[in-house]
Design brief:
By secondary structure, the protein is of the alpha/beta class. It is built from eight helices and seven strands; from the N terminus they run E-H-E-H-E-H-E-H-E-H-E-H-H-E-H.
Length: about 260
């Protein structure tokens, strides 16, 4: 008989889990029966999220995802603590300074690619190795963006990184399908988080700006909406879905106003 818990008994790693979409996902996933390891460089925030959820459901592991040894150790920590790994939600990411291609800062581009692409690749690599070794038919979900599907005059480095991340998702889908491991992306429209807004006033201005541009009216995209889509992809409700990039954009990339 179904418990109604979509991740009952599942062990999950969430990168970038100290704030924004990651923190919302940590709360949502644990409410659906998962035990979560929150991975982030923001130690105080990450510890606070874990404590707010409860030590029996969530723990924090500090990890710089640009360093492969730290990534490998985060996966080892999870397996040693919980005995297995079922789901990776690779959500950590950065947004570059607003700039056009004529002014792109190549050092900032390197950092953006290191976190948004290389860090995700490292976590997919080591999480999938553990799933393959244990025979787990796991699920890997990456936070991409609508910027993985379309371009624009600003944020060329971020857009390039998200296009690359989507390519990584699709390639990993092809390589891991034979092991029963699914790999998907979740692609939000602009959403106000600590990554995009430094305070409540900035968040409101951003929400108003993008709500005006949005296709779907009457709803303002929030981090928890993205977490709900990630929950679907992480759970067995999407058991035959792999290699997809689920847009949470109210139709924006379809109609492109």
């Amino acid at each position: 008989m179904s418990t109604g818990l979509r991740l009952d008994g599942k062990i999950v790693i969430i990168t970038g889990g100290a704030s924004g979409i990651g923190a919302e996902a940590a709360r949502l996933f644990t409410s659906h029966g998962a035990k979560v390891v929150i991975v982030d460089v923001q130690e105080e925030l990450g510890q606070n999220v874990a404590v707010s959820i409860g030590e029996d459901k969530a723990s924090f592991y500090r990890c710089d995802i640009t360093k492969e040894t730290e990534v490998e150790n985060a996966v080892k920590f999870t397996v040693e603590k919980h005995g297995k790994l079922d789901v990776l939600f690779s959500n950590a990411g950065v947004l570059e300074t607003v700039q056009g291609i004529l002014d792109i800062d190549l050092e900032e581009l390197d950092r953006t690619m290191a976190i948004n692409v290389r860090g995700a690749a490292a976590f997919i690599k080591h999480a999938a190795r553990e799933m393959v070794a244990s025979g787990t038919r796991g699920s890997i979900v990456c936070t991409t963006s609508i910027a993985a599907e379309i371009g624009g005059p600003e944020f060329p480095g971020y857009t390039a990184s998200k296009h690359a991340l989507l390519g990584l998702v699709r390639s990993a889908c092809g390589g891991l399908g034979k092991y029963g491991i699914r790999v998907n992306g979740v692609a939000p429209y602009a959403v106000s988080t600590g990554l995009t807004s430094k305070d409540e006033e900035a968040a409101k201005l951003l929400e108003d700006h993008y709500a005006d541009k949005a296709n779907l009216k009457g709803v303002v995209l929030k981090a928890h909406h993205v977490a709900q889509a990630a929950l679907f992809l992480a759970s067995d409700d999407s058991v035959y879905i792999s290699g997809q990039n689920l847009a949470v954009d109210g139709g924006f990339t379809v109609v492109r106003p």
